[in-house]
Amino acid sequence: MPKSNPETHVIDFRAAERLLAAKDPRGAVKLLDSVIAAHPENTAARLLRARAFFAAAQLRPAELEFELVLEREPDNAFAHFALARTFERAGRPEQARRHFRLAAALDPKPEYLRAARFDPEA
């Protein structure tokens, strides 16, 4: 059976979700590479791959994937939050602050508001 059919891509996507949950981000990235090669427009797969890159401490690839997701979905609060965490981890606090604030403005979840530190000191 060929590896590149829509059903296989769904199976690979779900398996990648499980691998990421099981703390195997590199395995998740490998599965998602074929899904994204076949469906480059699939934002959900790109967001999952960005999360896997982040979990594997591959910050530059994570940054690029989160930015691609945000080009397509500029109002994706989670993608802004995750990109901010990526910038924070990479020692880029100004860029992180901007995306934490965008995330909080788009979706006032308590964790987003805390990260955005909407106070005069921030």
Task: Give an overview of the whole structure.
The protein has 122 residues and is mainly α. It folds into 2 domains: 1-58; 74-122, no CATH class. It has helices spanning 6-21, 25-38, 43-55, 59-72, 77-89, 93-106, 110-116.
Major sheet size, sense and barrel closure = none
Number of discrete domains: 2
Distance between the termini: 56 Å
SSE series: HHHHHHH
Class by alpha and beta content: mainly alpha
Give the overall shape: elongated
* Helical fraction: over 70%
Radius of gyration, Cα only, in angstroms?
Answer: 15 Å
Put simply, the count of helices is 7
- The whole-number mean of residue pLDDT values reads 93
Unreliable stretches covering 5 or more consecutive residues: none
Tell me the total number of β-strands.
0
How large is the share of residues in beta strands?
under 5%
Quick overview:
It contains seven helices and no strands. By secondary structure, the protein is an all-alpha fold. The termini are far apart.
What attributes does this structure have?
122 residues, 7 helices, TPR_2, repeat, mainly alpha, TPR_rpt
List the helices and strands and how they pair.
Blueprint: H1 6-21, H2 25-38, H3 43-55, H4 59-72, H5 77-89, H6 93-106, H7 110-116
Helix pairs in contact: 1-2, 1-3, 2-3, 3-4, 4-5, 5-6, 6-7
